[in-house]
Amino acid sequence: MARRRNAIVIGAVVVAGLAALTVAQSDIPYPDIPRGQGEFCVEDTEFMRRNHMNVLMHQRDDTVRDGVRSKQHSLKECISCHAVTGPDSIAVTVESPQHFCRSCHDYAAVKIDCFQCHASRPERGVVAETVKE
Ligand code: HEC
Ligand code: HEC
Ligand code: HEC
After folding, report:
1. Which of 4, 49, 72, 114 maximizes the CB count within 10 A of its CB?
2. 8 Å CB contact between 91 and 125
3. Interval 90-122: pLDDT, tens
4. Whose CA is nearest to atom 12 of ligand 1?
5. What are the residue boundaries of the structural domains of the chain, listed by start?
């Protein structure tokens, strides 16, 4: 399983046109992607690996432009199912390299600005954040 993921992530790196492939294979550790809660993702896992960005953008357009709200591809739902618990038993924010979205993005050198506005962990983690800081 880990091997297959690695192959996919490396594939995505190539698609993204990053020239770091040779380096990635020899020097950089493969990403350890935390598993989501439950049995299934909102779409086929393989599909999500490749297309989650399109799915998210589509959902965003539907909501922001047309006011359509569904849970299926909601970013909130991704964050909820893909929350990663830190050592203090509180869900980590995107500040942590353990964060689900960062597990691949750091590796593939992808930068997203989504969490400047969107919460990067479930709401119940927010109170704890205030306490911590
Ligand atoms: C400048 C602030 C801002 C940034 C940056 C931003 N969003 Fe949003 N986004 C919003 C607002 C405001 C809404 C509307 C909130 C609502 O109606 O729930 C929204 C709605 C959404 C929705 C539909 C509601 C939901 O939870 O499903 C999705 C999906 C979404 N954004 C994804 C993204 C993604 C992916 C990125 C990064 C590529 C991103 N957004 C970056 C402000 C932002
Ligand atoms: C109901 C819980 C749930 C929701 C909601 C959810 N996921 Fe998932 N996701 C999972 C599970 C469980 C897996 C692993 C499934 C497997 O191993 O086949 C997964 C796998 C993935 C993977 C592949 C990870 C890997 O190991 O390669 C990506 C990427 C992903 N999800 C992104 C998203 C995004 C983006 C959203 C929001 C649009 C989302 N997920 C919503 C549960 C969820
Ligand atoms: C299985 C690895 C993996 C996981 C997990 C993952 N991503 Fe990605 N993501 C990628 C790769 C690789 C790219 C860039 C390659 C591409 O564009 O085809 C990318 C690109 C994106 C982009 C488009 C960025 C751009 O500027 O084009 C968005 C938005 C995004 N991811 C959102 C998310 C969010 C939100 C999460 C967490 C809920 C997440 N991703 C989790 C691998 C992953």
Report:
1. 49
2. yes
3. 999 999 999 999 999 999 999 999 999 999 999
4. 117
5. 1-30, 36-133
Burial call 76-110: b when 16+ CB within 10 Å, e when fewer:
eebbbebbbebeeebbbbbeeebbbbbbbbebbee
**Mind listing the pLDDT tens digit for each residue in 9-30?**
545 544 444 444 444 444 556 7
Amino acid at 116: Q
User: In angstroms, how far is CA 59 from the centroid of its own chain?
Assistant: 16
Q: Does residue 103 have its Cβ closer than 6 Å to ligand 3? A: yes
> What is the value of pTM for the model shown?
0.84
Q: Is the CB of 100 under 6 A from ligand 3?
A: yes
Question: What is the number of the ligand 2 atom nearest to the C-alpha of 80?
Answer: 5
Q: Whose CA is nearest to atom 37 of ligand 1?
A: 114
- CA-nearest residue for atom 41, ligand 1, is 114
